[in-house]
Design a protein that fits this description.
By secondary structure, the protein is an alpha+beta fold. The chain has helices at 2-29, 34-48, 175-180, and strands at residues 54-63, 66-68, 71-74, 79-92, 100-114, 127-140, 144-154, 163-172, 194-200, 212-218, 221-225, 232-235, 238-243, 257-269, 279-291, 301-312.
Length: 313
Protein backbone atom coordinates (compact mmCIF):
# COMPACT_ATOMS: atom_id res chain seq x y z
CA UNK A 1 0.00 0.00 0.00
CA UNK A 2 2.80 2.38 0.86
CA UNK A 3 4.33 1.92 -2.62
CA UNK A 4 0.97 2.68 -4.25
CA UNK A 5 0.60 5.89 -2.21
CA UNK A 6 4.08 7.02 -3.27
CA UNK A 7 3.26 6.40 -6.94
CA UNK A 8 0.02 8.43 -6.62
CA UNK A 9 1.79 11.31 -4.90
CA UNK A 10 4.65 11.43 -7.44
CA UNK A 11 2.24 11.28 -10.36
CA UNK A 12 0.19 14.15 -8.91
CA UNK A 13 3.36 16.18 -8.41
CA UNK A 14 4.36 15.53 -12.01
CA UNK A 15 0.99 16.69 -13.31
CA UNK A 16 1.07 19.80 -11.14
CA UNK A 17 4.61 20.63 -12.25
CA UNK A 18 3.71 20.26 -15.90
CA UNK A 19 0.54 22.39 -15.63
CA UNK A 20 2.41 25.18 -13.85
CA UNK A 21 5.25 25.15 -16.36
CA UNK A 22 2.81 25.12 -19.30
CA UNK A 23 0.76 28.15 -18.18
CA UNK A 24 3.13 30.70 -19.70
CA UNK A 25 3.34 28.71 -22.92
CA UNK A 26 -0.44 28.66 -23.33
CA UNK A 27 -0.76 32.40 -22.58
CA UNK A 28 1.98 33.64 -24.89
CA UNK A 29 1.86 31.26 -27.85
CA UNK A 30 -1.71 30.01 -27.87
CA UNK A 31 -2.95 26.49 -27.15
CA UNK A 32 -0.49 23.86 -28.48
CA UNK A 33 -1.64 20.69 -30.22
CA UNK A 34 -2.14 17.55 -28.08
CA UNK A 35 0.74 15.75 -29.81
CA UNK A 36 3.02 18.60 -28.70
CA UNK A 37 1.84 18.61 -25.09
CA UNK A 38 2.01 14.88 -24.35
CA UNK A 39 5.74 14.37 -25.04
CA UNK A 40 6.61 17.30 -22.77
CA UNK A 41 4.25 15.95 -20.13
CA UNK A 42 5.94 12.55 -20.26
CA UNK A 43 9.35 14.16 -19.84
CA UNK A 44 8.18 15.95 -16.70
CA UNK A 45 6.75 12.69 -15.31
CA UNK A 46 9.97 10.81 -16.08
CA UNK A 47 11.98 13.37 -14.14
CA UNK A 48 10.01 12.66 -10.96
CA UNK A 49 8.96 9.01 -11.11
CA UNK A 50 11.60 6.28 -10.65
CA UNK A 51 11.83 4.35 -13.93
CA UNK A 52 13.36 1.25 -12.37
CA UNK A 53 17.01 1.86 -13.24
CA UNK A 54 18.07 0.06 -10.06
CA UNK A 55 16.74 -3.41 -9.30
CA UNK A 56 17.36 -6.15 -6.76
CA UNK A 57 17.20 -9.84 -7.64
CA UNK A 58 18.00 -13.15 -5.99
CA UNK A 59 16.84 -16.62 -5.12
CA UNK A 60 17.68 -19.99 -3.63
CA UNK A 61 18.17 -23.36 -5.32
CA UNK A 62 18.17 -26.86 -3.84
CA UNK A 63 19.81 -29.58 -5.94
CA UNK A 64 20.63 -33.28 -5.57
CA UNK A 65 24.13 -32.84 -7.02
CA UNK A 66 26.57 -30.04 -7.74
CA UNK A 67 28.24 -30.47 -11.12
CA UNK A 68 29.99 -27.58 -12.84
CA UNK A 69 31.20 -27.84 -16.46
CA UNK A 70 30.89 -31.63 -16.27
CA UNK A 71 32.99 -31.92 -13.10
CA UNK A 72 31.58 -33.32 -9.88
CA UNK A 73 31.89 -31.31 -6.69
CA UNK A 74 29.22 -33.04 -4.59
CA UNK A 75 26.45 -35.58 -5.22
CA UNK A 76 25.42 -36.53 -1.67
CA UNK A 77 23.55 -34.84 1.14
CA UNK A 78 21.62 -31.58 1.09
CA UNK A 79 22.97 -28.92 -1.29
CA UNK A 80 21.56 -25.38 -0.98
CA UNK A 81 22.70 -22.59 -3.30
CA UNK A 82 21.49 -19.04 -2.48
CA UNK A 83 22.24 -15.99 -4.62
CA UNK A 84 21.48 -12.27 -4.57
CA UNK A 85 22.46 -9.31 -6.73
CA UNK A 86 21.88 -5.70 -7.77
CA UNK A 87 21.42 -4.54 -11.38
CA UNK A 88 21.76 -1.01 -12.76
CA UNK A 89 20.28 -0.23 -16.16
CA UNK A 90 22.50 2.39 -17.80
CA UNK A 91 20.19 2.85 -20.78
CA UNK A 92 17.53 0.95 -22.72
CA UNK A 93 16.68 2.33 -26.16
CA UNK A 94 15.50 -0.56 -28.39
CA UNK A 95 14.19 1.80 -31.09
CA UNK A 96 17.51 3.54 -31.64
CA UNK A 97 19.60 2.94 -34.76
CA UNK A 98 22.74 2.48 -32.66
CA UNK A 99 24.49 -0.90 -32.58
CA UNK A 100 24.17 -1.07 -28.78
CA UNK A 101 20.51 -0.92 -27.75
CA UNK A 102 20.82 -1.37 -23.99
CA UNK A 103 23.46 -1.62 -21.29
CA UNK A 104 23.28 -3.07 -17.77
CA UNK A 105 25.90 -3.55 -15.06
CA UNK A 106 25.40 -5.76 -12.03
CA UNK A 107 27.00 -7.31 -9.00
CA UNK A 108 26.10 -10.77 -7.71
CA UNK A 109 26.94 -13.10 -4.83
CA UNK A 110 26.47 -16.87 -5.19
CA UNK A 111 27.05 -19.57 -2.58
CA UNK A 112 26.92 -23.34 -2.18
CA UNK A 113 26.20 -24.88 1.24
CA UNK A 114 26.65 -28.66 1.62
CA UNK A 115 25.29 -30.87 4.37
CA UNK A 116 28.04 -33.38 3.53
CA UNK A 117 30.84 -30.92 4.49
CA UNK A 118 32.56 -31.35 1.11
CA UNK A 119 36.40 -31.24 1.28
CA UNK A 120 36.24 -29.21 4.50
CA UNK A 121 39.54 -28.42 6.20
CA UNK A 122 38.33 -25.64 8.52
CA UNK A 123 35.17 -23.93 9.80
CA UNK A 124 32.49 -23.27 8.60
CA UNK A 125 32.62 -26.86 7.34
CA UNK A 126 29.33 -26.78 5.39
CA UNK A 127 30.09 -23.52 3.54
CA UNK A 128 31.76 -25.00 0.45
CA UNK A 129 31.75 -22.08 -2.00
CA UNK A 130 31.28 -18.32 -1.99
CA UNK A 131 31.56 -16.43 -5.30
CA UNK A 132 31.58 -12.72 -6.08
CA UNK A 133 30.59 -11.71 -9.60
CA UNK A 134 30.69 -8.46 -11.53
CA UNK A 135 29.00 -8.41 -14.94
CA UNK A 136 28.05 -6.26 -17.92
CA UNK A 137 25.25 -7.06 -20.39
CA UNK A 138 24.79 -5.25 -23.70
CA UNK A 139 21.75 -5.66 -25.95
CA UNK A 140 22.97 -5.45 -29.55
CA UNK A 141 21.43 -4.86 -32.93
CA UNK A 142 19.95 -7.86 -34.76
CA UNK A 143 18.71 -9.69 -31.68
CA UNK A 144 22.17 -10.42 -30.20
CA UNK A 145 23.16 -10.00 -26.56
CA UNK A 146 26.73 -9.89 -25.23
CA UNK A 147 27.54 -10.64 -21.60
CA UNK A 148 30.84 -10.48 -19.74
CA UNK A 149 31.40 -11.62 -16.14
CA UNK A 150 34.37 -11.67 -13.78
CA UNK A 151 34.11 -14.34 -11.05
CA UNK A 152 36.14 -14.33 -7.84
CA UNK A 153 35.51 -17.82 -6.43
CA UNK A 154 36.44 -18.81 -2.87
CA UNK A 155 35.95 -21.78 -0.55
CA UNK A 156 35.17 -20.66 3.03
CA UNK A 157 35.66 -24.21 4.38
CA UNK A 158 39.14 -24.41 2.83
CA UNK A 159 38.26 -27.08 0.26
CA UNK A 160 40.33 -25.40 -2.48
CA UNK A 161 42.28 -22.25 -3.29
CA UNK A 162 40.67 -19.15 -4.74
CA UNK A 163 39.88 -19.00 -8.46
CA UNK A 164 39.60 -16.10 -10.89
CA UNK A 165 37.50 -16.65 -14.03
CA UNK A 166 36.43 -14.50 -16.95
CA UNK A 167 33.18 -15.50 -18.72
CA UNK A 168 32.12 -14.24 -22.15
CA UNK A 169 28.72 -15.08 -23.65
CA UNK A 170 27.03 -14.28 -26.95
CA UNK A 171 23.34 -15.20 -27.29
CA UNK A 172 20.81 -14.75 -30.07
CA UNK A 173 17.07 -14.11 -29.80
CA UNK A 174 15.63 -16.08 -32.74
CA UNK A 175 11.96 -15.53 -31.86
CA UNK A 176 11.32 -13.35 -34.92
CA UNK A 177 12.79 -16.00 -37.24
CA UNK A 178 10.30 -18.64 -36.10
CA UNK A 179 7.45 -16.15 -36.17
CA UNK A 180 8.21 -15.14 -39.76
CA UNK A 181 8.46 -18.85 -40.68
CA UNK A 182 4.87 -19.29 -39.48
CA UNK A 183 5.71 -21.47 -36.48
CA UNK A 184 3.68 -20.27 -33.52
CA UNK A 185 3.08 -22.08 -30.25
CA UNK A 186 2.00 -20.57 -26.92
CA UNK A 187 5.04 -19.47 -24.96
CA UNK A 188 7.54 -20.49 -27.65
CA UNK A 189 10.15 -17.79 -28.14
CA UNK A 190 12.62 -19.62 -30.33
CA UNK A 191 15.54 -21.91 -29.52
CA UNK A 192 17.53 -19.05 -27.93
CA UNK A 193 20.99 -20.38 -28.89
CA UNK A 194 24.15 -19.17 -27.15
CA UNK A 195 27.91 -19.58 -27.07
CA UNK A 196 29.80 -19.12 -23.82
CA UNK A 197 33.45 -19.43 -22.87
CA UNK A 198 35.39 -19.38 -19.61
CA UNK A 199 38.99 -18.21 -19.39
CA UNK A 200 40.77 -19.33 -16.23
CA UNK A 201 42.89 -16.43 -14.99
CA UNK A 202 44.78 -18.58 -12.49
CA UNK A 203 45.46 -22.32 -12.28
CA UNK A 204 44.58 -23.12 -8.66
CA UNK A 205 41.55 -25.19 -9.68
CA UNK A 206 40.25 -28.02 -7.48
CA UNK A 207 41.91 -31.23 -8.60
CA UNK A 208 43.26 -30.26 -12.03
CA UNK A 209 45.02 -27.66 -14.12
CA UNK A 210 42.21 -25.90 -15.95
CA UNK A 211 42.89 -23.29 -18.59
CA UNK A 212 39.97 -22.76 -20.93
CA UNK A 213 36.46 -24.00 -21.49
CA UNK A 214 33.48 -23.27 -23.75
CA UNK A 215 29.97 -24.54 -24.27
CA UNK A 216 27.08 -24.29 -26.73
CA UNK A 217 23.45 -24.42 -25.80
CA UNK A 218 19.78 -23.71 -26.47
CA UNK A 219 16.91 -23.00 -24.10
CA UNK A 220 13.48 -23.20 -25.82
CA UNK A 221 10.32 -22.56 -23.75
CA UNK A 222 6.66 -23.61 -24.08
CA UNK A 223 3.40 -22.82 -22.28
CA UNK A 224 2.08 -26.38 -22.02
CA UNK A 225 -0.33 -25.56 -19.18
CA UNK A 226 -2.24 -22.43 -20.18
CA UNK A 227 -3.97 -21.43 -16.96
CA UNK A 228 -5.01 -17.92 -15.94
CA UNK A 229 -4.60 -18.75 -12.25
CA UNK A 230 -1.30 -20.67 -12.41
CA UNK A 231 0.41 -20.30 -15.81
CA UNK A 232 3.23 -22.84 -16.10
CA UNK A 233 6.13 -22.40 -18.52
CA UNK A 234 8.29 -25.37 -19.52
CA UNK A 235 11.86 -25.03 -20.75
CA UNK A 236 14.03 -27.77 -22.27
CA UNK A 237 17.64 -26.58 -22.07
CA UNK A 238 20.41 -28.50 -23.84
CA UNK A 239 24.10 -27.73 -23.25
CA UNK A 240 27.27 -29.28 -24.68
CA UNK A 241 30.56 -28.46 -22.96
CA UNK A 242 34.18 -28.66 -24.11
CA UNK A 243 37.55 -27.84 -22.55
CA UNK A 244 40.97 -27.31 -24.03
CA UNK A 245 43.56 -30.06 -23.89
CA UNK A 246 44.53 -29.32 -20.26
CA UNK A 247 41.09 -28.47 -18.90
CA UNK A 248 40.10 -31.94 -17.66
CA UNK A 249 43.44 -33.74 -17.83
CA UNK A 250 42.12 -36.98 -16.33
CA UNK A 251 41.68 -39.39 -19.23
CA UNK A 252 44.42 -41.01 -21.26
CA UNK A 253 42.91 -39.67 -24.46
CA UNK A 254 43.18 -36.04 -23.37
CA UNK A 255 39.74 -35.46 -24.92
CA UNK A 256 38.32 -31.94 -25.30
CA UNK A 257 34.73 -33.16 -24.88
CA UNK A 258 33.30 -32.55 -21.40
CA UNK A 259 29.62 -33.36 -21.14
CA UNK A 260 26.09 -33.09 -22.55
CA UNK A 261 23.33 -31.82 -20.28
CA UNK A 262 19.62 -31.93 -21.16
CA UNK A 263 16.48 -31.70 -19.10
CA UNK A 264 13.12 -30.08 -18.46
CA UNK A 265 12.10 -27.31 -16.07
CA UNK A 266 8.64 -26.08 -15.08
CA UNK A 267 8.32 -22.55 -13.67
CA UNK A 268 5.38 -20.44 -12.55
CA UNK A 269 4.89 -16.95 -11.07
CA UNK A 270 3.91 -16.81 -7.40
CA UNK A 271 1.08 -14.30 -7.77
CA UNK A 272 -0.13 -14.80 -4.20
CA UNK A 273 2.89 -12.74 -3.07
CA UNK A 274 2.09 -9.03 -3.17
CA UNK A 275 3.80 -6.90 -5.84
CA UNK A 276 5.04 -4.69 -3.03
CA UNK A 277 7.55 -7.46 -2.25
CA UNK A 278 8.69 -7.81 -5.86
CA UNK A 279 8.00 -10.40 -8.56
CA UNK A 280 8.42 -13.98 -7.30
CA UNK A 281 8.50 -17.27 -9.18
CA UNK A 282 9.20 -20.91 -8.40
CA UNK A 283 10.48 -23.84 -10.44
CA UNK A 284 11.11 -27.57 -10.32
CA UNK A 285 13.35 -29.38 -12.77
CA UNK A 286 15.15 -32.56 -13.75
CA UNK A 287 18.14 -32.92 -16.03
CA UNK A 288 20.49 -35.68 -17.11
CA UNK A 289 24.20 -35.33 -17.80
CA UNK A 290 26.33 -37.59 -19.93
CA UNK A 291 29.90 -37.17 -18.67
CA UNK A 292 32.82 -37.52 -21.09
CA UNK A 293 35.78 -39.78 -20.37
CA UNK A 294 38.20 -37.07 -19.25
CA UNK A 295 35.62 -35.29 -17.08
CA UNK A 296 34.26 -38.53 -15.62
CA UNK A 297 34.98 -39.45 -12.02
CA UNK A 298 32.76 -42.41 -11.15
CA UNK A 299 29.62 -42.16 -13.30
CA UNK A 300 28.87 -41.89 -17.01
CA UNK A 301 25.26 -40.75 -16.57
CA UNK A 302 24.24 -38.35 -13.81
CA UNK A 303 20.55 -37.59 -13.07
CA UNK A 304 20.03 -34.34 -11.15
CA UNK A 305 16.83 -32.98 -9.62
CA UNK A 306 16.38 -29.40 -8.46
CA UNK A 307 13.85 -26.82 -7.32
CA UNK A 308 13.99 -23.24 -6.17
CA UNK A 309 12.59 -19.75 -5.77
CA UNK A 310 13.63 -16.42 -7.32
CA UNK A 311 12.57 -12.78 -7.09
CA UNK A 312 13.21 -9.42 -8.67
CA UNK A 313 12.33 -6.00 -7.24
Amino acid sequence: MFTQYIKRITTTLAITTFICSSTQLLASEGEPAVEEVLPNFQKEVDKIINNGKLSLFGGIDVTTAYYSRGQKYEDRGVIIQPWVGVNVNIFNEPETNDFVKSLDVYGLWWGSIHGNRTDASNSPESFYESDYIFGVTAGLDGGFTFNSEYWYETSPNGGWDEIHDLFLKLSYDDAEFWKSAGFEYPGFSGLQPFFKTCIRLNNEAPGSEEHGYFWLGINPTFDLLQSETIPVTFSTPVTVGFGDGDFYGKGSGNDDFGYIDTGIRASAPLDFISDEFGNWSGYVGFHLQYIGEDARTNRTWMPIGCFGLSFSY
